Amino acid sequence: MTLQSRDYSAVRVGIAAIPADLSNDAVGDYAPKLEDIYAPETHASALDPGIPIVVGSRGAGKSFWSGVLGQTATREAAAVAYPRLGLRDIIVGFGFTGGVGGPEGVSVEALNGLLSPDASIEKAKAFWWATILRAAARAEDVQKRLSEWMSVAGDWEAREEEITRHERRLRRTDTTLLVVYDALDTVATNWPRRRLVTEALLEVVWAMRAYHAIKLKLFLRPDQIDDDALRFVELPKLRTGAVRLAWTGADLYGLLYARLALTPQREAAASFSKLLASLNIARADRNTILSRRWALAHNSDYQARVMEVLAGPFMADGPYGYKKGKTYDWPLKHLGDAFDEVTPRSFLGLVIAAAKRGAPPADRVITPDGIRHGLREASKTRVDQLHLEFPWIKGVLAPLAGLLLPQDEAEVYSVWRRARTIELLTKDAVENSYLPPFPAEGGRGEQQLFEALRRIGVMFRRKDERIDMPDLFRVAAKLLKKGGTAPL
User: pTM to 2 decimals?
Assistant: First the structure.
């Protein structure tokens, strides 16, 4: 079956129409919808009720899966995708939802309202116990305010009696209550409080091992659970049992092709089906994709063949084009952070931007130039989104613009010193009430600033000790690299 120019153009329109903003909240208007669900095999453990801690960077899908678990319809779809997890036998309540509260959530305002700035760790633990009591009562259709549970939560005998009563009730019906905690990076705007509140929650998680029918699930950022200042004695065991929410290259391409296969753009769907037929690859419906019975969801060889049709085999034409890399590998290589993790938001952002770049070619869907442009757009978006999570990030990266990487650490630190970077960001963090990159009681030099960037995957140290930055951040930050994609 021969593809026509109009087929390439239709698929291009289909890619450009994919929603670029994949951000979700666990509850509310921006909770995940059925049509949003794509379920990689590697994410099964993230939804497993028996695994209490899921770790993931921004954009990896923490709030997405929190929201999927929290809604009956999306949880049913997840049960189809992961039939061995027993998701049809669970009731889900929320213990924390960050900046979004409402009837189902527990907001940071609730935490701040019930936990004074000088609260002890015992008071912090009482707050988290109260969220469990609230979720268990709501599962029994008892609507009491969180504040009403605080006194019970602070009395260990009354608390245990109440939780044990719910435990017995749930066991009689062979049901599990799963209490989900999302957006936990929002619990505090200073380091002492974040550590207090986080440590209290982890202690409660550990104590809940005593119950079979009530389980907790925390979706955490890596830097929050890896904070060396946390003193909870059982923390190493919790870290060991945590699972990482990450996307493989095959997962990302599977997501892209699933979006194309299920696009509401009729011409794009028909032309993509025609493209698959030309490669002897079967089409798929939503259930086939959801249950991962579609070859394009996991077979990287098939995925690469489709990418060759979309963009050509290499990132340059001519007999030596292969030296610039394969079009299938290039986005994965250049979109990774310092831990080599690529998020769906960055990956789809690159491909969508590539499909909008320049005039449509006659014999392909996107071009190497479009892919490089897509990296620039994905980099800008990633830094903008990272700024929402770490409001100090742009002020730290801005002085480095024009610096050639990799670079000796002395030169990087000198740039920051000349720009008074640490002084300015420390002042700004106080004035705008956000968490600075390092605690006030520790060192606050350029070395500590680099370590903060290293912990979140923005910078890394090469084997020769020089400092480097992944292209995902470097391009938007306007740093230079020999042979690398030019900044915006």
Answer: 0.92
